[in-house]
């Protein structure tokens, strides 16, 4: 009777690991927007927490300052969330192979994933899982390190053009104020030239937000 439970535990652990890898690939590697249920749950929960904190803010500036941390915190929480799920998934597989009790399995899984090396096994099949877990742990960190500069570069490029609105449309930008200033300084007939520049910006926005979905949440 114990064998079927161990097989089920191994398959469930493998499913958790594969789901976590899929979430990481859809976030960091796939060059287009791919829906990830795990990422969606994480960002929705974080949003609910921040919305609760914003109830204590009285002004728009205070609310905006709180919500500005939404995307950075959500992005930084992805890797710890993946690590926790990977630890649980591999611990289930270690348990199915008879490494030890659940605490020993979690200890071995955490040691392997974080490449600390304070726990080991003499069994070949278990060592294969240990090596694969250590490799995935390093890959997740490397992907995040490579992903952040690219994302912030796209964010800066997006915001640079938006900041130009302060000169033409006030701060915060207003469409009415922009029309008034253009009428006073350049004349409304010059707006056609202005829209052509923004057409390029919208095309770049679509490309960057499709490639880097997390940019949607950055403010």
Shape: elongated
Rg over CA atoms, rounded to whole Å, is 24 Å
Question: Helix count?
Answer: 9
Helix content: over 70%
Are there runs of 5+ residues with pLDDT below 50, and where? none
CA(first)-CA(last) distance:
55 Å
How many discrete structural domains?
2
Largest sheet: none
Task: Tell me what portion of residues adopts beta-strand conformation.
Answer: under 5%
Helix-strand topology string: HHHHHHHHH
Verbal overview:
- There is one protein chain.
- This protein is mainly alpha-helical and 219 residues long.
- It has two domains: 153 residues, no CATH class; 51 residues.
- It contains nine helices and no strands.
- It is elongated, with a radius of gyration of 24 Å.
- The relative contact order is 0.10.
Give a quick summary of the entry.
The chain is mainly alpha-helical. The chain contains nine helices and no strands.
